[in-house]
Amino acid sequence: MERLRLPRKLETKEVLENEEGMGQILTDILEGMASSGYTVIELNDQKPWGAYVRLDGTDADRFVEDFFPDLSPEEARLGIEGAELSPKFLIVSPGQRLSWQYHGRRAERWRFLTNGAYHRSDTDDEGELVSVPAGSVVQFARGERHRLVGLDDEHVVVAEIGNIPIQSLLQTRKILFDWLMIINVKT
């Protein structure tokens, strides 16, 4: 199968600079994913900062190969056997930003498909804004604080791969199962 290439329209400054461009960017991503055999399982274009597109986890290894060519799926799992990968695209509108966040159970890696910016820190101090060109890859460790930031006049588009250690999945599923059992007993 040929390597995935998102349509060139995604990379044009005209689309990235205007708010109507969000719809075109989402169309380009969705069409690119569909034509390459990926399965989109969630699209949320109602975020205050922009939108995201989440792909089926069964597409994760191919997503890593297509968007993180210098990384193997095993490396994306950080050497944790059985870790589940979560492939996603983040689209940040001009002048917007994601919340200041960290993930206690997973690490993330971003590949900037456009020019972009982010903050990162081991503490709650946001630190300096880091601007990066398209093609840059950034790894965030589990628990490391970070924030993706939209540019003043352009959308920022990132391919994201997150890993969830199998122990965390099993623990979450056990908590959910226990909770469902309690509900069933009470009803």
What does this 3D model show about the protein?
The chain has 187 residues and is an alpha+beta fold. The protein has a single domain, classed as Sandwich (Jelly Rolls). Helices cover 28% and strands 30% of the residues. The radius of gyration is 17 Å and the shape is globular. The termini are far apart.
Short description:
Helix content is 28%, strand content 30%.
Tags for this model:
three-stranded antiparallel beta sheet, Jelly Rolls, alpha+beta, disordered N terminus, single chain, 187 residues, globular
Proportion of strand residues: 25-35%
Please tell me what the overall shape is: globular
Give, in spatial order, the strands making up the sheet with the most strands: 1-2-3-9-4-7
What class, by secondary structure content? alpha+beta
CATH architecture classification: Sandwich
Under CATH, the topology is which?
Jelly Rolls
Mean pLDDT across residues: 81
Order of helices and strands: HHEEHHEEEEEEEH
Uncertain runs are 1-5, 7-16, 167-173
Describe how the helices and strands are arranged.
Elements: H1 13-17, H2 21-35, E1 40-47, E2 50-55, H3 60-67, H4 73-76, E3 84-92, E4 107-112, E5 116-121, E6 130-132, E7 137-140, E8 145-149, E9 156-164, H5 166-186
Antiparallel strand pairs: 1-2, 2-3, 3-9, 4-7, 4-9, 5-6, 5-8
